[in-house]
Each structure stands twice: as structure tokens, then as C-alpha cells.
What we know:
Number of helices: 8
Structural class: alpha+beta
CATH superfamily of the largest domain: DnaJ domain
Helix content: 10-25%
Order of helices and strands: HHHHHEHEEEEEEEEEEHEEEEH
Number of strands: 15
Low-confidence stretches: 69-92, 100-107
Largest sheet: 4 strands, mixed
Number of domains: 3
CATH architecture of the largest domain: Orthogonal Bundle
Distance between the termini: 93 Å
Mean pLDDT: 82
Shape: elongated
Strand content: 25-35%
CATH class of the largest domain: Mainly Alpha
CATH topology of the largest domain: Helix Hairpins
Amino acid sequence: MKDYYKILGLEKGASTDEVKKAYRKLAHRYHPDKKGGSSERFKEVNEAYQILSDANKRKQYDAFGTTDGFGWQGGNPFNGFDFDASGMVDMEDIFDVFFGGGFQGKRKSYKRGSDLQYITQITLEEAYNGIRKKIKFPTQVVCRECVGKGFDKNKGVDICNTCGGRGEIKETRKTFFGSFAKVKECHECFGTGEKPKSTCAKCSGSGKISGEREVEVDILPGVAQGQIIKVAGFGEAGERAASAGDLYIKIDIKNHNQFERRGDDLFMNINLPILDVLSGSDISVKTIAGKNIIISIPVGFNLNESLTVSDQGMPRFGSWGFGNLIISFTVLTPKKISKKAQELIDRLKKEI
């Protein structure tokens, strides 16, 4: 009997992540195409992974030492099962191995609607101020004809003949312990206990049709590029009145012609006449908030540096305060210089 845990170098209680990591490491080491690889060891590692990465196969292997039946080969046939104080095996545990679940079956839960992702574009100003945006998008909506039930409501339903309206049937399995019966969902009516006399002609029984939905969503100040906003219940309609999926709105912020955003800070470049650099000056700057602020350029300002204006960047999303506005400068020089201007520059050189 193969010890799959030993093959992967793991303890019996190893987690799923530990199984995956061990498999990747050993599969890489023993791959037949690699120097020093081994096709036999590679096959053995792969076999161990196939068993231990599958929850049902692993449970059966832990119980019986095999996934092909009862392969304890002289060992303890009850190994892996839970025993109570009297030493009796827990029959629910045995059922779990043979049937993949407990004694009670589950009523059919029709398929939930798929989640949707929608990309919406906003401006940097809208990201700064926040905006309530109306979004329309194509999707699967509840069929109005049958109200999502999937059948002609005027013709009604019949009791399922297979399960007699219970929605459940009894399945019997023979094991070495004897015969066991398990209640499971009726395959004919999918656990509803009813069969429609006539499916809905508009939706062909699915309970949903192609349509369009509309939602208004609040985009809060400071929202980031690529941020996802979840709107519960606005995805595709579910199958036969099952719950709808969710809508995930991805924010795409348009590039700005003046500001560049980095986190909560905004960066901008200003063209500065050379005389303003030499003599110093006050300049007016329009912020992302739309207000004008006065920036003082000191005499002889080093153009390799930037000026930081506190709290004039983006709002901090979900928090207090703002980022900064960071301004860099490019010197504007005249393309042509008059003779008189050249004389003044020459005089200035002597003074500096």
C-alpha cells in the first residue's frame, strides 16, 4: 500500500496549500525532461497529488488506505473513522465516505445568477468630489411572463410522480457493513416536488431573459483607479427565481491634461519665465478643487527641486485629510533676444 503522504514528504494532517507546494517542488525535481529526472518518481508524485488534493478521495484514502474500495490489507478497517466513548464507529462518518455527504439530502437550490463586471469612466475632478452615477447595462433579467418561475403560471404544476411531491428519493447502497439507505434529491424534479405542466415559452423554462438593468451608485471622494465597487443583487438573474448575482463596478479615471495622480498626491508642471526664476515672483495656480492659490517662488529658486503644497491633492478615500500638490517647473527662455536685451543680460552677468 502506497503512503502518499510519505511520497510528498508530508504529515497526515497537511493542509491543501502544503500539498500543492510539495507537489510543485517534487514534480519540478523529478520531471522526465530534466537532468536527473525520473519518470517513475514523477508518476508517483503525480498520483499522490491527485489523491491528496481531492477532498473526497483523500477522505477515503485516510479511512481505507486506498481509493479503490477496501484496501486495508490486514490493517485496521476502521482507521480514519471517529469512535464514540463506547468504541462504536460513527456511522455518519462512514456515510460521508460512501455517499459524499450525511444522512439528509438537500432540496434543490437553483443556480444563482452570474456576477457581472462593468467598467465606468469618470474624470479626475469627479474622483476628487465624488459623484452619484447612473449606470445602464445589458444582462439577464427575470422573465416577466412567468415571474422567474420558468413555467406557465396559468397552467400550473403537477406533483412529481418519481418522488410523490416530497422532492426526495431514497437511495440504497450495499457495503460490507450491510445495506444503507440515504435520502437524496429527486433527479426528476430537482428537489422541488413539482413538475410544470408547461414551461414558459418566453424564457424556455430558465426563468430569465435578455434585458437591461439600471442602477445608481455613489462613487465616494478619493476613489482610486481600478477600484471595485460591489452592488449586491444587480448581477444576472438567477435560474428559476434563484437569487441574482452581484454587480462589480470597476472605476477607470480619465487622464488629466494638467495633473498626474500618484496615490493621494497630485503632480503638475508649470512653465516659468526665466526672469521669475531670477527675481522671484508670486504665481497663481488653479487646483483640482477649482480654486486659485498663490505660490511664492523664492529668488534664485533651484529648478531641480519641486514645491510641495500641503492638502491640495486628492481626498484620502474612506479617511480624513488630503494628499499634497507637488509642483515642478520648466524655465521658459525667449527664442529671440534684442540687441538691447543682450546688453542688459551682459550687464546682469557682471552683477551676479
